Amino acid sequence: MSSIGVTIAYFYACFVAYRLFKWSDKNANDTTAKKGAIVAPWRKFLSLLGVISSIGFFLLLIVPGSPGFLATPSLIALAIWVAIGAIFFLTKLKSYRAIPKKELDLYILGDYAEEEDGLPPKKEIPSAAITATVASKANK
């Protein structure tokens, strides 16, 4: 049953990476282009490969007759686990929706929460800290 959870997590990570990367810079002026998208066709291809393979792994675990098909007790435990998760999610949904978007972004993203201009907040490093770091590396 843990293999299902790992497969779903792998799918999610690869899908997010696929959405982040772009094939080319053709749509740079397109208003529907995603903010923060990175032009990296090889990485986009690898993330697409990860999405496809995770779907394959998921099907191997779920489709009856496949070599990795989960046994009945595992499927029952998985169904109970999903039901418990759905119940907890639905009971907390109202309180989550009451949190303002800006505050929720801060909770989830921390310092990486986007400002109103769509750019992450800039952190300035004092020049004294840079000088001290460079000096300490030079002394080694």
Please characterize this protein's 3D structure:
The structure is a single chain. The protein is built from 5 helices and 2 strands. It has 140 residues and is mainly α. The chain has a domain at 1-70. Strands 1-2 form a two-stranded parallel sheet. The longest helix has 26 residues, at 72-97. The radius of gyration is 22 Å and the shape is flat. It starts with a helix and ends with a helix. The model has no long low-confidence stretch (mean pLDDT 79).
Topology:
Layout: H1 2-20, E1 21-22, E2 38-39, H2 41-62, H3 72-97, H4 101-109, H5 127-139
Parallel strand pairs: 1-2
- Radius of gyration, Cα only, in angstroms? 22 Å
Please give the largest β-sheet.
Answer: 2 strands, parallel
SS field, number of helical segments: 5
Strand order within the widest sheet? 1-2
Keywords: Membrane, Transmembrane, Transmembrane helix
Transmembrane segments: 6-24, 45-63, 69-91
Highlighted features:
single chain; 140 residues; mainly alpha; two-stranded parallel sheet; 2 strands; 64% helix; flat
